[in-house]
Design goal:
240 residues; alpha/beta; Rossmann fold; 8-stranded mixed β-sheet; 6 helices; globular; disordered N terminus
Length: 240
Amino acid sequence: MTKTTIAGPEPIAVQRGVSAAPAPATPIDPNFYETQYQQAQGEIAQTPWSLGAPNPALVSWLNAQATSLVRPGCRVVVVGCGLGDDAIELSHRGFDVTAFDLSPTAIQWAQQRFPQESQRFCVADVCSPPSHWRHRFDLVVDISTLSGVAPEHWAEMARGAADLLHPNGVMLIICAGRGDDEPAKPLDGPVSGPPYPLTADELRQLLACNGLTLIGELEDLMSDRSPPRRFFLGAFGRCG
């Protein structure tokens, strides 16, 4: 794996004047993130996982690697799109973008921020997406959505995202990462997650269970935020 420093999304517990949010009673509970977006009351700074700009790791990947893996103008879906910056970046590069989130407030907010492209955003659940989305997309983009739920839900989330992918498509995953010797959840402190970082092997195995294998290297990234946070970036395609 390569290792570098790049800006990345912040976890809910951050040191910038935003109160730490409580861990959800049910980590995949749709009301958890919806409540966070509602409580933000239109202030992006109150949603610490939102950058208010495209994810820098995504931008770097688009600049350096995307052209060799996906064709211009192909169908792209952004899983857990939040406030929409990543989807708009992809749209501005000429891709045919669909973006969805489980939170109605997040989608409404994204539509208000980008009114000229509001039709790209919709409310949906990656674990039970519309049936016509199955195997529809040439590029599936998951940024922090997989690591935004507890480990017991990783398999369900990975399966749902993989099911959106065209047989010849590519899935891009950017997720919170941890070393093999680190626990999946913090052992102490008021917040047990999200995020719930994955090890490199856990990420590979989750995707392998859905017929996907790593294309090239899994990048090992560190955010430039305080404190620094570790992220993995990997592109995956169908085995064989």
